[in-house]
């Protein structure tokens, strides 16, 4: 027997119900639409921007998403494996820009503050005009891995390929 879906809005009660009825009109099933929508919204995966996906890819390559990662040999700490020299460089950039904010060595253990430091350094990349987003990401990633001239070092290509592979085929939306 064929079924048809009828949406019934109950005025005044503030609820919407969807009732499945057979062709004769006999109710078969009632579903609270608001409850279904709430469930869908709760189950929806948060959509991340292309930049957030890039940062996540770098974090994965650096620490396999581990905020407690520590490399004793390099004294690199946290999800982005920040070395003491990077904290000093970020603070130098902030001071030069006359921004009254400074990071400490302990801030490297904070994912939020690590990402802030990463983004401060990414802002130092002089480019963008005429570059595709992925070209910009390559420069940022390679400089993050190899220092101020990292984007010119052959040794950082392996690092960039790891980030790019983790990022996948994500393309920015125009």
Describe the structure.
The chain has 174 residues and is α+β, with helices and mostly antiparallel strands. 44% of the residues lie in helices and 15% in strands. The strands form two sheets. The protein has a three-stranded antiparallel β-sheet. Strands 4-5 form a two-stranded antiparallel ribbon. The longest helix is centred in the first third of the chain and has 14 residues, at 50-63. Residues 1-16 have low confidence and may be disordered.
Question: Characteristics of this structure?
Answer:
6 helices, 3-stranded antiparallel beta sheet, alpha+beta, two-stranded antiparallel ribbon, 174 residues
Quick rundown:
This protein has 174 residues and is of the alpha+beta class. The protein contains six helices and five strands.
């Amino acid at each position: 027997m064929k079924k048809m879906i009828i949406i019934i809005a109950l005025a005044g009660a503030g609820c919407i119900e969807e009732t499945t009825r057979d062709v004769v009109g006999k109710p078969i099933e009632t579903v609270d639409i608001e409850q279904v929508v709430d469930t869908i919204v709760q189950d929806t995966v948060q959509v991340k921007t292309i930049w957030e996906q890039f940062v996540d890819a770098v974090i994965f390559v650096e620490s396999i998403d581990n905020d407690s990662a520590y490399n004793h040999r390099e004294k690199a700490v946290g999800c982005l494996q920040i070395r003491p020299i990077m904290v000093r460089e970020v603070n130098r950039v902030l001071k030069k820009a006359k921004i009254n904010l400074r990071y400490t060595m302990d801030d490297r253990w904070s994912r939020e503050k690590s990402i802030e430091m990463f983004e401060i350094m990414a802002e130092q990349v002089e480019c963008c005009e005429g570059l595709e987003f992925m070209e910009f990401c390559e420069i940022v990633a390679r400089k993050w891995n190899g220092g101020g001239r990292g984007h010119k070092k052959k040794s950082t290509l392996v690092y960039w390929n790891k980030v790019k592979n983790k990022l996948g085929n994500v393309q920015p939306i125009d």
